[in-house]
Amino acid sequence: MRVLGIDLGSYVTGYGVVERSGDGPVHIDSGEIRLNRRLSKLYHELCNIMERYMPECVAIEDIYAAKNIKTAFRLGQLKGVATLAVERFNSSLFAYTPLQIKKAVVGYGLADKQQVRQMVKRLLRLPSLPREHAADALATAICHIHRLIIG
């Protein structure tokens, strides 16, 4: 099973494509989409990624309480755009809280970003640490794969 993980951000959105295999999760691709305040850029980039890798499902980090109302509104817009891209390809969308993602990847729900990056590198046997938003997206995909395995 192939999973696309998405980490939404106001300025940078991370993505990570991971495949479930018998030896554990396998890294297919990851990166970051730099947003220029245009929602259409995110839509087109996500559609290109989905067309290229054809994931069976998409896992996204659920929006949590933002400190700034403008940030919360922007993240809501981004989530709507991502949802539209997922629906265009008839994929299933799953949302996980940051706590669930960190617990699935690190084993500790309050892990910091550096711990998540280190564990993603280790779990996917990457040669170097992934960029911050890409790591969060990969962690989200890994979280979904773990949920599939343990039910």
Search tags:
5 strands, alpha/beta, 48% helix, 5-stranded mixed β-sheet
The CATH H-level superfamily is Ribonuclease H-like superfamily/Ribonuclease H
User: Mean pLDDT, rounded to whole units?
Assistant: 93
Order of helices and strands: EEEHEHEHHH
Contiguous helical run count: 5
Q: Low-confidence stretches at least 5 residues in length (pLDDT < 50)? A: none
User: What CATH architecture would you give?
Assistant: 2-Layer Sandwich
3D shape: globular
What would the CATH topology be? Answer: Nucleotidyltransferase, domain 5
**At the first level of CATH, what is the class?**
Alpha Beta
How many strands appear in the DSSP assignment? 5
Percentage of helical residues? 40-55%
The span between the termini is 15 Å
Q: What class, by secondary structure content?
A: alpha/beta
Rounded to an integer, what's the Rg over CA atoms? 14 Å
Strand residue percentage: 15-25%
Summarize the structure.
The chain is an alpha/beta fold.
Question: What does this protein structure show overall?
Answer:
With 151 residues, this protein is of the alpha/beta class. The protein has one domain (2-150): Ribonuclease H-like superfamily/Ribonuclease H (Nucleotidyltransferase, domain 5). Helix content is 48%, strand content 25%. It contains 5 helices and 5 strands. It has a 5-stranded mixed sheet with strand order 3-2-1-4-5. β2 (12-21) and β3 form a beta hairpin. α1 packs parallel to α2 and α3 crosses α5. The relative contact order is 0.23. The model has no long low-confidence stretch (mean pLDDT 93).
